Every structure is written in C-alpha cells, then in structure tokens.
Amino acid sequence: MRLVIIPALLAxxxxxxxxxxxxxxKAMPYPLDTCPVSGEKLDQHAVTKTYxxxxxxxxxxxxxxxYEANRAMFDQQIDLAARAKAGERKGKSSGK
Length: 96
Known about the structure:
Number of domains: 1
Distance between the termini: 71 Å
Order of helices and strands: HEEHH
Radius of gyration: 18 Å
Helix content: 40-55%
Shape: globular
C-alpha cells in the first residue's frame, strides 16, 4: 500500500512544476502593469510565472490557468500591448 501512495504523492507535487516551462537563464521582465487575461491593474498580490524566457504577471491564479490554456493568443496580445506602450514612451521622450 505504501508503494502506491508514494508515487501518487510525488506525481501530485511535481504537477505544479510541469505547468510552467523551466526558467531560462534570464527571463524577459513582464512589460505591462495589467493582467494579460483580465486587464486588471496588477498589485502586490500579483502572481508571477516564467515560461521559457518570458516572465508573465497575473492578477490571480485563475488568470494564470486561463493563460496556460491559450498561451499563443495571450503572448501575441502581450507583445502588441508592449509595443504600443514602448511607442508611447518613445513619443513622450522625443517631444512629440
């Protein structure tokens, strides 16, 4: 009986590690101040996860799970929003 329980406990404890990719040497910091799923402003309770070389912050664990279910779509949205934000900063710094 003990031999069955130990692998089951090990599988449960490892399941949380499998969801996110292993961290890269240096993850790209999350460029936004809002959750990519809900759009809510991030606060001190934000959930931070690393996927490959990308750091992503969420307002809650539920949003992290929704992101993981459709990473490609949310990554595209993050990239577009980050470019727009960078463009706003560039416009402000160039005096436009």
